[in-house]
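We append the chain.
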Amino acid sequence: MNSKQFIERFLIKEVESLLRHEQYYPILVYTSIGIETLGAIIDSKPIRAREQSKFRFASALFHLFPNQYGFVNKQNFLYDALRNHSAHNLLPSSKLLIVNKKNKTVRHLDQSREQTTIIIDYLAKDFIEACHLAIDKIDKGEVKMKQIAM
């Protein structure tokens, strides 16, 4: 399977399905690891390159997501509080406040009260848009198509 097919099948469709069914914590885990996967797809190293996790996560945020994500990830905050905690504990760090868009009292990626707020619906939407941007980069030849062993 090539990287474009992988993004469409395992990243976009899965997150869209989870979002439709309001499966918020699975979205959190899936997108936090998926961000790193997007970084692996857009970099020039092999998919299975070792010790690239932090760099790939940051690269995906920088190249594929709205600017605010890169700002919040300074000193690898999102990598640690979101990606590492979700990947290893299936829950985010207590430094993150996770809500859905029905909560009208907070703003997405707002940093206050010693917590950073993530509105999961917006994270999912931004993740899906990042996936489409990665596909566009592949289509334009800006990113080399990779093969992903299944």
In short: The mean pLDDT is 93.
